[in-house]
Design goal:
The structure holds 2 protein chains of 2 kinds. Chain A is an all-alpha fold. Chain A folds into 2 domains: about 130 residues, Four Helix Bundle (Hemerythrin (Met), subunit A) (Up-down Bundle), CATH 1.20.120.1200; about 40 residues. By secondary structure, chain B is an all-alpha fold. Chain B has one domain: Orthogonal Bundle (Helix Hairpins), CATH 1.10.287.3510. Helices cover about 75% and strands about 0% of the residues of chain B. The N and C termini of chain B lie far apart (about 55 Å). The chains are: A mainly alpha, B mainly alpha. Chains A and B meet through helix 1, helix 2, helix 3, helix 4 and helix 5 of A and helix 1, helix 2 and helix 3 of B.
Chain lengths: ~170, ~100
């Protein structure tokens, strides 16, 4: 049990550090690699939550597809000018004030007394692919079909957007 | 057993970092990556509640979120490529042609 907590802390610390790297790195390529590290840590946290299928989906789709797409776009565009952007100074100072205040406020609410009485159901068994597939193809069939159409529309839209202008 | 609040706290911190990235950075690619970060932190919350309430629905929603995020990235990067090709801007402050 204590080992589980130690692993959670390890994954959480690395994930937060990598997320900070995404925001702070000057070069978009470094940011992309930092985001890959963060997404892998989130996948590990999904494993800790006994949902291995979602962890695999996370790695396949996010790390395998989305981040590779990001890196391709960074390669296609010339980032010489853009990568010279320095980390934003104090010009946008309200962000530095409002976000930490909001974060501390939320953390006080989460770790405070109001959540303490919410005793959750004792942890369930590991969800297998069979259970997820059964739910997805019976109870959630309509959302599944709608999301497929959405994905197709997004694909067509992306191709048309990126196509050279035809006259 | 890990307390549920730890997962919510982790999701909150990652979400705040993502919001900070969207608000502070000017490079559009990094803004898009920060949006991915925010969507991921929401997924952590969904899966954590799915585990602690012993309910499959949270994971189903997380799968839908991942799909929508993939579609969003495809469209956003298509728009970005078209924008850079036609206007030569990669800075979100320079994209103000819709401003009256």
């Amino acid at each position: 049990m204590i080992l589980e907590r130690l692993f959670f802390i390890l994954f959480a610390v690395v994930a937060i550090a990598a997320a900070g790297g995404v925001v702070c790195f000057k070069n978009p390529v470094h940011s992309a690699f930092s985001l890959i590290v963060c997404l892998l840590q989130v996948a590990a946290i999904f494993v800790l939550l006994r949902s291995p299928f979602l962890a695999v989906v996370q790695i396949f789709i996010y790390v395998g597809a989305v981040m590779v797409l990001f890196l391709f776009v960074v390669l296609v565009l010339d980032i010489k000018k853009a990568s010279l952007e320095t980390f934003p100074g104090l010009k946008r100072w309200p962000v530095y004030v409002i976000l930490p205040v909001m974060a501390i406020e939320f953390l006080i609410v989460i770790f405070g007394k109001s959540f303490a009485h919410m005793q959750m159901a004792e942890a369930g068994a590991e969800t297998t692919v069979e259970v997820i597939g059964l739910a997805l193809f019976t109870h959630y069939l309509l959302p599944f079909e709608i999301i497929s159409v959405l994905l197709l529309a997004a694909m067509v839209g992306a191709i048309i957007m990126a196509k050279k202008r035809w006259n | 057993m890990i307390p549920l609040t730890w997962f919510i706290g982790l999701g909150l911190i990652l979400f705040m970092i993502g919001v900070a990235g969207v608000l502070l950075r000017k490079n559009i690619i990094i803004v898009l990556m920060s949006i991915e970060l925010m969507l991921n932190s929401v997924n952590i919350n969904l899966v954590a509640f799915s585990y602690y309430l012993d309910d499959i629905r949270g994971q189903i929603f997380a799968i839908f979120t991942i799909t929508v995020a993939a579609a969003e990235v495809a469209v956003a990067l298509g728009i970005l490529i078209a924008l850079v090709r036609n206007r030569r801007v990669l800075n979100s402050d320079d994209m103000d042609s819709l401003k009256g």
